[in-house]
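A quick aside before the break. I want you to see a complete sequence-to-structure record at least once, exactly as it would be stored in a machine-readable document. Don't worry about memorizing anything.
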Amino acid sequence: MEEMSEAQVEVGVAFLTQTAAGILGNSCLLCFYSYTLLTGQKVRPTDTILSHLVFANNLVVFSSGIPQTMARFGWKYFLDDAGCKAVLYLFRVARGISLNATCLLSGFQVSKLCNRNAWWKMTTRFPKCFGFCGSLFWILQLLVNVYVPLRVIGPRHKQNVTLHMHYIYCSPGPPEPFATLLHVVLFIANDVMCLVFMMWASSSMVLFLQRHKQRVWYIHSRIPSRRPDHEARATHTILTLVSMFISFYCLSAIFTLWLGLSRKPGLWLMDTCQFLGAGFSVLSPYVLISRDTRLIQVFYVCIK
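That is the input. The structure line, written in tokens, reads:
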């Protein structure tokens, strides 16, 4: 370890706090969803999707937050070449799964709101379908990001690679134009399609809620049914998650592009990219916890 400045300690504490909060929130949710899926008690169709989401978010926090915290607290060369490849590969795969799961979640909710036909009555098949889709997402991300371990190398003990990297603890390998272009096309195509779909689904849900509100106001119903209330609450939760994901993704993309175009990027720019990259994974479990009545009941019973 090397002697640290006051600024390094502050950044390290920030990453440590973010990492601890993310692991705590996602681990609690993962245990809860695993329990409901295994026991079959009060299972909702979205629990399968959310279990994939929180598991991926936990991997994002582990693979990004812990190495970054160690690096900012002065540990040097704590990852060898194989470790560096594995950590960054895991981070990219988990990040992709988080994107795909959020996209699937928004698609499920907009279908539930907007389609009231016989097809929607087959609700018992959806958990199995979501499990199959989740498996396909993992396979897709494992294949799309196979390029990452081929392009990343561990830090060289005899070189100062700090200013050549997007990560303090790893460095890129020699440039390969064709392979880089192919990976960028696949990477951006997957992200853009998911982001466009999420924005379309969010717009559709907002319009549906607005029309539903106007309809209820027109009927002057003083006793609303429980089903619309539950659907509205679930829709607001998903809209919040999608808005958070898009916000963090766009900010992270802007700073990552800035980092890639900079010849000598500062450490603050690297730290900002890493902090924003894990932002959704850290905050999203607390949104889910605050909106899930089952968890609120469990906490109330524990406290009582």
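Two observations worth writing down. Strands lie at 152-153, 171-172. The chain has a mean pLDDT of 79. We'll return to this after the break.
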